[in-house]
Amino acid sequence: MTSFRYPVANPQIGKNESTYVNECLDTHWISSSGKYIGAFEEGFSNTFGPGVSVAVNSGTIAIDLALEAVGISPGDEVMVPNFTFAGSVSPIYRLQAIPVLIPPCEDTWNIDVELLKKYLTPKTKAIIAVHLYGHPCDIKAIVKFAKEHNLAVIEDAAESLGAKVDGRYVGTFGDVGCFSFFGNKVLTTGEGGMCLCKNQQLADNIRLYRDHGMTSDQRYWHKVIGYNGRMTNMQAAVGLGQLERIESLIERRMEIHALYNNVFSKTEFFKKITIPENTQIVNWLESPVLKDSCGLDRNKLIQDLVEDSIETRPFFYPISQMPAYSRFGLNDANSDYFSSHGINLPTYTQLSDSDVNTIAESVCKRIEKQFNKGSKETKALELPKNIAPSYTPVVSIILPTFNEADNICSIISTLREEMVSISKDYEIIIIDEQSIDNTVGLIRENFKHDANVHFHIQEKRCGLAKAIHEGILKAKGEYILIMDTDYNHDPHMAGKIVKFTEHFDIVSGSRFTTGGSMEKTSVWFCSLIYNLMLRMLLGLKTQDNLAGYFCIKKEKIQLLNSDFIFYGHGDYFFRLLYLAHKKNFSILEVPISYKTNLSTNTSKSFLWTLLCYTKRALKLKFLSTD
Question: What is the mean pLDDT of residues 494-518?
Fold first, then answer.
C-alpha cells in the first residue's frame, strides 16, 4: 500500500470524540442503543434542520430507507443523475424499481433540470436529487417540478453537508435528505449516515425499516421486511464530537478551496464550473476539471502526481457505462466529459496553507509539462503554420453532423486552411445528432487538442435545422458560416464566402447563379421548381433559397425572429432569407457546385415535397412577424 505525504483525505479526530468513545467502552454501550445516538440525532436536526433526524449506518442505506419510506414499489421509475456515485442508484435496484438516468448540465456536474420533463412518464414516482462534490443542484426547481407532478424528492447530500441554497441547508428541501459520514466526508463517524426527514411520519417509517421492520412497541414483531441499518452508539459518539466543531471544520475546508482556486485561476487549464449566486458550496474534495481543449490526459496526471507523493482520485464513472447498469444505456457526452477530465485533490483540515500551495503548484507543473510535451509530439493536430488556437474568434463555423465519418476530418482540415488563408481567427462548432458511425470517435481522436474545435452532442435527434440553431446560440464570432458536412458543399469555398460577408449582410451559396451547378440533372430540375415557387410565393429576389451554405453577420442574425422556426432543413434557410429580405438586408449569392446525395425517384415524391414547401411557405408568409 502506497503511503502518501498528502493523502486525498484524512479525518481529524478531536479530543471529545475520543472521550465520548471511551465512555461507550467503559459503560459497555457499544452497540445500537445508548445516549449518544439520540444526542447525535437531536444535535444534527438543530444544526442542519429543520427536520427529524434518524441515524443510520451508511449514506447508501439512508437512500434505501428513504425510498421505502416514500412508498417506492417494484416497477416504479425513479429519476436519478447519470453522473453520480453508484450508491445513489443501487438502492433503486434493490427495490426492483427502475432507475431513469438523467444527464448533467454542461456547465455544472449536477442533474439537468430541463431534461426532467423529457424523461417523465406515468410510472415516475420520485427524483433522487444529488448534490455532487459539494455543489448543490438546482433543488428549488426540482422540488417545484416534483410538486407539479406529485413526485417524492430524496436529496442525496452525502458529499455536501453544510452547503446552502438561499441560506438554507441542502437536505431540507425534499421529503428526505440523506447524508454520509464515511471517513473522507465533512463530518465522519468512520462509517455512518443520517436521514433528515420532512416530518415525523417519514422518520417513523424509516426507523421501522431501519430496525429489521420490527415495531417499536412489540419486540421481535416484524411488520415489514426491513434492513439492519442502525448506527452504533460508538459511531454516534464520534459524530457528536465532530458536530460540536462542525463550523470550524467547514470553514477550514472553504479556506483550502480558496487557496487552490487562487493558484488554478491563474492558468488556462481548468474548466469553470458555474455556481449560482444563491448557492453556497462546501469543499468536500477539491474537484478541478481539465479543459478538453488543452488535450491533457487526466489519468497520466494522476500517475505523475504519485511521484510527488500526492494522492488523488478520478471523478466517478457515468452510471450508464458500468456493467451492472449497462442495460440502461445512455448517450451522455456531459457525463463522459466530467468523468474523464475531473480529478479530486487532497482536502482535509490538517493541511496547512503551505501544504495546499505545494499541492496546487505541483499539479500545475505536471500539467504544464504534459501540455508542452503534447504540443511537440501530437501529430494528429497538424495545425496550420503561423496560427495559434484562438479564444476570441472572428468567424464561427457551424457544422451539423450525423454519420459523417467519411468526410468530417477532411472538411475540418480544409476549413482550417481556408481560415488561415484569409487570416481570420475562427472556431468550428460541431453539433452532432448522436451519430452511430465513428464520427464522434474521429473528432475526439483527431481534434481533441485543437482549441478552435468545439464538439457538442445533442441529447436527442431534433433535425438538422435544430442542430444549426443550437450552433448559432453557441457561436461567439462576428461572422457565422453554416454548411453541410456530407460534401454537398465544397469547404474550399468557405474563405471566399466569409470575405464577401465583410461587404454584405448575408452571402449565400447558390446553385442557380451564373457559374453554379448541380451534379444530377433530375435533382437540379426539382430544386429549380422549388426555388421558383418560393420566389413567387414569398417575393424573394434570390435565386437559391434552399442550398443552406451561407455566412451571415452575427449582429444581423440577432435581429431576426429566432423563435419562429421550421425544423425541416430547407425550411430553415428560406425562412431566414425571407426575414432577411423583409429587413432589407444586403444579400449576395456566390455560385457553388453542388454534389447531392438526394434522389427524386418518383413524380409522387417530387409533388409531395412541392406541396409541403408550398404549405410551409404560405404559413411563413401569413404567420411570420418582423
Answer: 86
Q: 165-194 pLDDT, tens per residue?
A: 999 999 999 999 999 999 999 999 999 999
Which CATH topology does 250-377 take? Aspartate Aminotransferase, domain 1 (3.90.1150)
Per-residue pLDDT reduced to its tens digit, 229-261: 999 999 999 999 999 999 999 999 999 999 999
d(CA 433, CA 418): 26
Cα 517 from Cα 595, distance rounded (Å): 9
Give the C-alpha separation, 160 to 145, whole Å: 22
What are φ and ψ of residue 555, in 5° steps?
-60, -25
b (16+ CB within 10 A) / e for 302-323:
bebbeebebbbbebbbbbbeee
- Does 15-247 match 395-623 in CATH topology? no
Q: Of the given ranges (109-113, 547-551, 562-566, 611-615), which has the lowest mean pLDDT?
A: 562-566
Helix H or strand E segment including 246: helix 246-264
15-247: CATH number: 3.40.640.10
Q: What distance in Å separates the CA atoms of residue 371 and residue 367, rounded to the nearest whole number?
A: 6
Parallel, antiparallel, or unpaired: how do β-strands 193-197 and 52-56 relate?
antiparallel
C-alpha 609, offset from chain centre: 38
Rounded to the nearest 10 degrees, how much is the dihedral formed by the CA atoms of 388, 389, 393, 396?
A: 120
The residue ranges of every structural domain in the chain are 15-247, 250-377, 395-623
User: How many Cα atoms sit within 13 Å of 173 on the Cβ side?
Assistant: 29
Cβ(206)–Cβ(223) below 8 Å: no
Distance CA 442, CA 285 (A): 34
Res 329 pLDDT > 70: no
Please choose, from the candidates 161, 107, 109, the residue with its C-alpha nearest in 3D space to the C-alpha of residue 134: 161
What percentage of the chain has pLDDT greater than the value 90? 57
CA distances from 112 to 157, 159, 176, 290, 491 (A): 17, 19, 21, 21, 36
CATH code for residues 395-623: 3.90.550.10
How many CB atoms lie under 10 A from the CB of residue 181? 30
Residue 387 pLDDT level (bands cut at 50, 70, 90): very low
Coil vs helix vs strand at 338: helix
Q: What's the grid cell of residue 582?
A: 423583409
Strands (E), 446-531: 453-457, 479-482, 506-510, 517-518
C-alpha distances out from residue 602 to 95, 269, 526, Å? 55, 56, 11
